[in-house]
Amino acid sequence: MPELPEVETTRLGLLPHLVGQQIQALILRRYDLRWPIPRQLPELLAQQRIKCLDRRAKYLLLTTSHGSALIHLGMTGVLRILAAPGEPGPHDHWDLRLENGWVLRYSDPRRFGCLLWQAPGQIHPLLARLGPEPLSEAFTGELLWQRSRGRKVAVKIFLMDQSNVVGVGNIYASESLFAAGIDPARAAGRISCIRYARLAVAVRDTLRRAIRRGGTTLHDFHQPDGQPGYFYQDLSVYDRQGQACRHCGAPIRQRQLGQRASYYCPHCQH
DNA sequence: AACGAATCCTGTGCGC
DNA sequence: TGCGCACAGGATTCGT
Question: Could you report the per-residue pLDDT of A49-100, keeping only the tens digit for each?
């Protein structure tokens, strides 16, 4: 669920609660997320003041003077900020207790998320090979065009490859390709520079609109205050197979690409 | 090198 | 209503 807009929504919701706060304790209940949580993490974070909360790709970086905690939400991870936390449920894997009594609680049924550590001046291997941020100047259609020359892979797969551009997952890849009028199954290497320029604009616009709506809630995702994201109502193609295209009225189709469901309008996308 | 597929987990929703 | 199966928003790793 959590693609760039959901992670950014989480970050924005947490910012006023976390930055400047001192950490009282990190309580770990399970270590076996996607990768094991480093055992020394509670020691590294205790009594430290949170300097900033940044986002790189779909990772959140919670930074103190000792280094940064790297948080990824995987498929089903949710961060909530709680004034009066109840008893933790079976999927509440860790709590970050703050000086003021509030608690940042991480919940993740599938445990595809992670909590890792990055020392100052170092770049974690998971962050090393990431492509440009889609909302930055570095992300352009020309870059996508250059990188895709000779590639036979479907453009949707190409767009979801985090070494080409970060933050775009299954939902926003489908949505952006619809907005750009490009068939998701088309070979990435057979799309013109002009059309990639259109796609880059579509990606940026789609992500920005989704952030404004607080992300997309299909099942699990919630904002830190418990609210769902409202972009679901704005989806053009994702999860709309059989329904009328909002642009031309043709029925939206679904097909498998790279073992993942893709949604598109057969009339508007070529 | 590039691509396809398996993999890590649990929950849900569907068809029978 | 109960059961089994397919599938789910991510992304690394492995085999061809």
Answer: 999 999 999 999 999 999 999 999 999 999 999 999 999 999 999 999 999 9
CA distance A174 to A157: 10
All CATH 1.10.8.50 domain ranges of chain A, comma separated, are 141-264
Query: CB burial class (10 A; 0-12, 13-18, 19+) of residue A239?
Result: middle
List the A110 CA – C8 C1' distance (angstroms).
Answer: 11
Q: How far apart are CA A270 and CA A253, in angstroms?
A: 13
Q: Which nucleotide is nearest to A171 (CA to C1')?
A: C9
Q: How far apart are CA A100 and CA A117, in angstroms?
A: 24
Q: In this structure, what token pair is assigned to residue A191?
A: 């799309």
Strands A67-72, A59-64: pairing kind: antiparallel
Those nucleotides of strand B lying less than 7 Å from any protein Cβ are 2-13
Candidates 1.20.120.140, 3.10.25.10, 1.10.1200.30, 1.10.8.50; CATH matching A141-264: 1.10.8.50
Q: Using the C1' atom of nucleotide B3, identify the protein residue whose alpha carbon is closest.
A: A153
Q: Of the candidates A258, A259, A268, which has an alpha carbon nearest to the alpha carbon of residue A152?
A: A258
Distance CA A256, CA A156 (A): 11
SS (H, E, C) A209-244: HHHHCCCECCCCCCCCCCCCCEHHHHCCCCCCCCCE
Smallest CA–C1' distance to B10, residue:
A110
Please check the confidence at residue A1 and state whether its pLDDT lies above 80. Answer: no
CATH of A4-128, one of 3.40.50.150, 3.20.190.10, 3.40.50.1260, 3.40.50.2000: 3.20.190.10
Closest CA to A87 of A63, A99, A105, A70: A105
